[in-house]
Amino acid sequence: ILIFATERNLSCLAQATTWFADGTFKVTPAQFYLLYTEHARVNGVVKPMVYRLLPNKSEATLK
Questions:
Q1: pTM of the entire structure?
Q2: What is the top-level taxon of the source organism (predicted)?
Q3: Beta carbons within 8 Å of 51's beta carbon, 6+ residues apart
């Protein structure tokens, strides 16, 4: 599992009242199964905050 985020993005995510999440399989590098992103609304605009490259889509992995 690889997780990419900046401290600023994590701070924005922690302060956000609404989070969004999405996963895609089509743009994932061959050694990973899923690109999972978490987004937050910042000043009325939804922006990606965290990117995760995951080996599978099991519930345990997503936690």
A1: 0.84
A2: Eukaryota
A3: 3, 4, 5, 35, 36, 37
Residues 6+ apart with CB under 8 A from 36: 21, 22, 23, 51, 52, 54, 62
Residues contacting residue 22 through CB under 8 Å, at least 6 positions apart: 36, 37, 39
**pLDDT tens, 5-59?**
999 999 999 999 999 999 998 888 888 999 999 999 988 999 999 999 999 888 8
- What distance in Å separates the CA atoms of residue 49 and residue 32, rounded to the nearest whole number? 20
Reduced to 3 states, what is the DSSP secondary structure of residue 12? helix
DSSP single-letter state for residue 3: E
Q: How far apart are CA 1 and CA 51, in angstroms?
A: 11
